[in-house]
UniProtKB/TrEMBL annotation:
Domain PucR C-terminal helix-turn-helix: 472-527
Domain Purine catabolism PurC-like: 6-125
Domain CdaR GGDEF-like: residue ranges: 300-418
Superkingdom of origin: Bacteria
Lineage summary: Bacteria, Bacillati, Bacillota, Bacilli, Bacillales
UniProt xrefs under PANTHER family: CARBOHYDRATE DIACID REGULATOR (PTHR33744), DNA-BINDING TRANSCRIPTIONAL ACTIVATOR ADER (PTHR33744:SF1)
A Pfam family it matches: HTH_30
The name this protein goes by in its record: Purine catabolism regulatory protein
Similarity comment: Belongs to the CdaR family.
Length: 536
């Protein structure tokens, strides 16, 4: 970056003088132009040095102050005024106002023509940009060479750090340090300072963050993933030497992005083999097509171990109403998988994560007992929302003691998850429990069970008249009281003989003995189902 200070320090511009002592000469300069037009504000580029004779403001210091306000908003880098033509001295009010804005006013010597000054400054800026371009190309060539040689991301970061002579820290999309350059070896103070800057300064102002090469730190997004970038924290930028440029760091970031993405795809491909094995386990009728004891090395490679405790947890990403494109879904799946692995393996290296053909679900296999696993699932739900815009839900199967029973725990977890999801729930944590008869009945459509009710209860299935309704009610209470006439008569407040009469009448209509075990079971089921159908 070329600054006004750098230009004024050159021998050829030694006669150029800063008029106001509070003018900020560290402003960036990218171009130079001549103007004698008062309304040039709308036609001037940022970081331009404007050169003028100020003839329009010969006797108008207030107009010159207004002009300075306008170009400072652009922002223009500085205003160079040739004082020997129309204005020989600047009004003190103009100088004071420029000082209040830290806006530099530069005196162009009488022996310099404005055209000559414009050409000289533009030539210097052009040569500077050429040097920066060559430097950026050299960075690109070095990084590409490392890519071709399949250097690791860690090694590429160190090589780049040596070339730039700057400490570099790579942070993943979950705000955890992925790699650091050798500058951080045995330097915890530098490590903590970089993290503090990233967490306390950069992240809170992420959307508005600027990268000033005159500051000590800068953070650059590394777009290995379009929606979930990595971050490169660069330290000691204030000590960087020419011809370092933004373009040079961009070239390095492009190469780092490719290397990170390539490594992620390699991990994903390797994981697919693990997922296939897990798929064969959960889909096999005997629980496993391969004996665990006979192939311990094989299973260890796939993060499985011999244990007396296994439990499957289904972790799912809650769906949203937002339209999700395939690129986002694929990136979210891969990054969620890596995030789950990083946090769960830290908790217990024997916890394994698997995919099983659903881009929104993962299977977590516990191979050791964890007393507080539910609390940790809640913790995962809270943490996940810091990095992703969706939430997580969990369905938990029962623990099993045999490797061959893993598929049972999986099916329980899957069923538990799907039931809560079908009910429209989100961010849930549900543990499997066996279904009661009423819940099982809800899985059957009414038109499938109605014939059973009618064939069992006949006219009492869905009675229309009062007499049949009383008979059905008496039969229901009689069956609920285990065919005890006394309890039935007390509950419905009628004489015992009335109960006997009604039960005999029911047996005539049904043509069965209600005391018979088989008929009794069918009648109880039919009565329950008829009530359920009637209430839905």
């Amino acid at each position: 970056m070329v600054s006004i200070r750098e230009i004024l320090s050159l021998e050829r511009f030694s006669n150029f003088k800063l008029i106001n002592k509070n003018g900020n000469i560290d402003r960036e300069v990218t171009s130079v132009d001549i103007t004698e037009t008062p309304d040039v504000k709308d036609y001037t580029s940022e970081h331009t040095i404007l050169l003028t004779t100020a003839m329009n403001f010969k006797d108008d210091p207030k107009g010159l102050i207004k002009f300075i306000d306008g170009i400072n908003e652009v922002p223009v880098a500085a205003l160079g005024i040739k004082l020997s033509r129309f204005i020989h001295t600047l009004d003190q009010a103009v100088i004071d106002h420029a000082d209040s804005l830290n806006f530099p006013l530069i005196e162009i010597p009488d022996n310099w023509k404005l055209g000559q000054a414009t050409h000289s400054i533009a030539t210097y800026i052009s040569n500077d940009e050429t040097e920066k371009l060559y430097y950026a190309l050299e960075v690109q060539q070095r990084m590409n060479s490392m890519l071709i040689k399949e250097f690791s991301v860690e090694r590429m970061l160190n090589q780049l750090s040596q070339f730039l002579r700057l400490p570099l820290m790579l942070i993943n999309p979950f705000y955890k340090v992925e790699e650091v350059s050798n500058h951080f070896t045995n330097n915890q103070k530098l490590y903590k300072e970089n993290l503090r800057y990233f967490n306390d300064i950069y992240l809170p102002e992420k959307k508005d963050a600027s990268r000033d090469f005159n500051s000590k730190y800068a953070v650059f997004e590394v777009p290995a993933f379009s929606y979930f970038p990595y971050y490169l924290v660069v330290s000691n930028l204030d000590s960087i030497s020419y011809p370092f440029s933004h373009l040079a760091i961009e070239q390095a970031i492009n190469s780092l992005s490719f290397a990170i993405y390539k490594n992620s795809r390699i991990r994903a491909t390797e994981q697919e083999d693990v997922n296939l094995l897990f798929g064969s386990i959960i889909n096999s009728s005997d629980g496993s097509p391969i004996n665990l004891e006979s192939h311990p090395d094989f299973f260890e490679r796939y993060h499985l171990k011999d244990s007396s405790y296994y439990q499957v947890i289904i972790c799912g990403i809650d769906s949203t109403s937002d339209i999700e494109n395939s690129e986002y879904v694929n990136e979210r799946y891969q990054l969620t998988f890596e995030w789950l692995q990083s946090v769960l393996v830290t908790l217990d290296p024997n916890i394994s994560i698997f995919g099983f053909g659903d881009s929104n679900k993962f299977a977590i296999l516990l191979q050791d007992r964890h007393e507080y696993y539910q609390a940790y699932c809640r913790h995962l739900q809270q943490e996940y929302k810091k990095y992703f815009k969706e939430s997580l839900s969990f369905g938990i199967g029962n623990e099993v003691s045999e490797f061959s029973q893993i598929h049972t725990s999986f099916l329980e977890a899957q069923e538990t998850f799907d039931i809560s999801k079908d009910h429209g729930e989100k961010e849930f944590l549900e543990i499997y429990r066996p279904r009661n008869f009423e819940e099982l009945l809800q899985l059957l459509p009414a038109d499938k069970v109605r014939p059973f009710v009618i064939s069992t209860l006949g006219e009492l299935a869905f009675p229309a008249n009062t007499k049949d309704k009383e008979l059905k009610k008496t039969l229901q209470i009689y069956m609920d009281n285990q065919c005890d006439i006394t309890k039935t008569s007390n509950e419905i407040f009628v004489h015992r003989n009335t109960v006997k009469y009604r039960i005999n009448k029911c047996e005539e209509m049904l043509r069965v003995n209600v005391m018979d075990p088989v008929h009794s079971l069918n009648i109880r089921l039919a009565l329950f189902i008829s009530q359920h159908i009637q209430n839905t």
